[in-house]
Amino acid sequence: MKSFEQLERLTRINRLISSEKTGTPEEFACYLHISRRRLFEHLDELRTIGVKIDYSRQRGTYYYSNGHEIELSYSLKIISKENAKVIFGGNCALFLQRAFFVHPARIILTL
Q1: Which residues contact 18 (CB under 8 A, 6 or more apart)?
Q2: Taking the CB of residue 18, how many other CB atoms lie within 10 A of it?
């Protein structure tokens, strides 16, 4: 479930930055229920993949600069054990016995 929590947090980060309603770093971290340090780690991770994020002291918010936009999507599809065998060529690992398959998240940057 940790990965779902991380995807949800990334979705909230994106929504708040897109709407330019993050508040100060302390307020932003509080909205996300994380420490300020962890917030900075998330922002650095986004910057590492090329997302331009700046902070305006005058407006008191983070914002995407240079026209960047993030689209985040993920899906969860429940499949049977038999369908899992077909998808993976007859191999059925332990994690497939739980009968679910998660498509990886996509992050699309628009420059």
Answers
A1: 64, 69, 70
A2: 14
* Neighbouring-strand partners of residue 107: 72
Instruction: Look up the pTM and report it.
Output: 0.66
User: Cα–Cα distances in Å, from 42 out to 5, 9, 49, 100?
Assistant: 13, 9, 11, 28
| pLDDT, tens digit (0-9, with 9 covering 90-100), for 3-34 | 788 888 999 999 999 999 999 999 999 999 99
Rounded-to-integer distance, Cα 99 and Cα 48, Å: 34
Per-state percent for the chain, helix, strand, coil, to nearest 5: 45, 25, 30
